[in-house]
Known about the structure:
The structure holds two protein chains of two kinds. Chain A is an all-alpha fold. In chain A, about 75% of the residues lie in helices and about 5% in strands. Chain A is built from 21 helices and four strands. Chain B is mostly helical. Chain B has a two-stranded antiparallel sheet. In chain B, a hairpin with a 2-residue loop joins strand 2 and strand 3 (about 195). Classes of the chains: A mainly alpha, B mainly alpha. Chains A and B meet through helix 7, helix 16 and helix 19 of A and helix 7, helix 12 and helix 14 of B.
Amino acid sequence: MLNSILSDDLPRSRLLTAVLLLILLGLAGGPFLFDGSVAFRTMSMICIFIIVVAAYDMLIGYTAVVSFAHMMFFGIGAYSMAIMLREFGASWPVVLAGIGVGQVLTIAAALLLGLLSLRVRAIFFALVTLAVASSFLVLLAQFYHFTGGEDGLRVRVPSEIGPAFRLTDTPWRGFNLFGFIRKVLSGAAIGEAWSQSFYNVRLTGRLLMYYILFSAALLLFLLMLRMMNSPFGRVLQAIRENEFRAEALGYRTVVYRTASVVFATCFTAFAGALFALSTRYVNPETTVSFSLMVFVLLMTVIGGMGTLYGAVIGATIFLIAENYLQDLLRMLSEAATNFPLLAALFHPSHWLLWFGLLFILSVYFFPQGVAGQLRIWAAKRRERRRQRGAAAPAADRAFDVEQR
Amino acid sequence: MTAQNNSPPTLKQVGAHSLQRIARFRMEYPHYFLLLLIGLVPLLFINFNIWLMLTISGAAMGLLIFIMASGMTLTFGLMGVLNLGHGAFISLGAYLGAAVLAFLGGAAAAPSIAANLGAIVPALLLALGVAGVLGLVFERVIIRPVYDSHLKQILVTVGGAIIIEQLIQVVWGASPIPVTRPQALAGAVVIGDMVIERYRLLAVVIGLGIYWAMIQVINRTKVGILIRAGVESTEMVEVHGYRIKLLFMAVFVVGSALAAFGGVLWGMYQELITANVGEQILVLVVVVIIIGGLGSVTGCFFAAISVGLVNLYVGYLVPPLGGVAAVGLLVAVLMWRPQGLIPVIQV
């Protein structure tokens, strides 16, 4: 059962399984466990970026296609939705049409980009996509009558997923997990802290939208897992390992590579449409900017390329860090007020400096990312256990062989 | 061919012949062909004086881009290292230049050219020196461990660029800072009814000077021979007993220094800079090195001028498309010559 849901691609590491379960449960019960609008926003973004990063992993991790135009497609999805809703009013058929328009535009653009990539060498592709994505950004700013330019667009969403909508009037109870832990750590009586940690969760349209995001992320993630473990995915991996050989075996690598680009960009455009619906506001900075592209790259690599599970971990770690690492740095910065240079380095607005450092170190020492490294450790542990003389079960051995 | 014909050639033959010559010219000298095409076609739409003005300004911009791009194209050609951290060195140069010009504000504001040079030259030298040293560190610490993998190079150089940019923000703050142009370079020269900014004339002079110097070094010196040989085949250079890694390090240091040098000039050209000024210009730099053919200095030079020109012509004729003209040119050139103008390496 679990095997078929996860397409026979289990996490293969106890720790990884535990972390993934934690993330799954945290996101599933999220609005009822973490109080506050920052937490809510962070969880929504994690759901969206799990799709984006997993799709990027299909490209960079499974097919070894480095594209810097990934967020361009996110932008196409988001802007198609925003503009369709503006032009034709906020209703569900228009939402569907917005998704459709985004997908069609994405497929067209991805095919054009794919055709261009036929003409150039692989290493050129990264550079060409960089140039194309930047020109998309320029065009967004230039045609501001249509796109809103730098100011962006407010998105009018159907009322069912707007903040004013009430599913029921009686609020449900949520339990503030971090608040509870903080209170207990600061020495409050457990019983008192327990009773103080409950808070009201109103069942608004935003909550509904969050669960749409959550289910979309879950389903699309499982779909991508299935695709990458299908014969199609195997061919992509063959292309990654040795394109020449894959071609010699009779696979038309160009077709496979283009298909991989098209699928990945379609998922991303879909995530973009969801983003527009969930944040109800799109602008170039939050959808297509180059720094956002770099963030997606960081998430993919830190999580672990070519694992898909890495996408979940990378997106979660990065977005939590983006929101909460700054708090930590603020504490450090205040502690170091006597040393102005240190205080400046630890200033919360420079959190990216530390993340960049972490990123380079992780490329050197853990090139497989978090997920890949956990798998390697688990495999080594299994290996050691087997060598210790205990006759390993045959199934376990087969597992290790498959893993090399 | 026509010399063997005794009868005088007909008009059709002459036409076919000249078409043939154009085709051969296009094949043999693609860089001249592209530049002529881009330079002359707009004459059909623009009146001559404006065309001349745009051409000088565009060439100035192109030459600035060339200074910044030359280092990146050589490091790629020599070792196949794709350094996306190049933009950060440009930013660094711009900030160092701005800092020196602000520090020597008195000299920069004085009306005499000698005093202005007393501000600009230290700015350029400081940028060259600091970026050179940082380039050395960057090459040893960040790039050396990942020579074998393009993907990892892209990743770590992006990471390195983030760190340098953030450090710039730590030192100079996140808000944009103004760059004061020295007095002698502010304002414009008026020739007839043409108005040309003085600063652009300076950019043309410096850019041509650097191109000339690079060509001299590459074509006339021993180091130049080694660089050209290294671009063609790294292994053969090593077989002859030269330490290609040392050579590469030197080229990387010079390339980084040139990026910062160009950054100083670019900062003065922009007059208002932020820490991601290099990241923004990196797109044009990348377009230029692809059009030129990765690894070729001459190709890079012609591509840079073409990009500068296209930018201004299109910006003048169809203003909203000015920003994407360079990318349009890139796509067109790749359709015509997938390897770029002067392909040097076959990866």
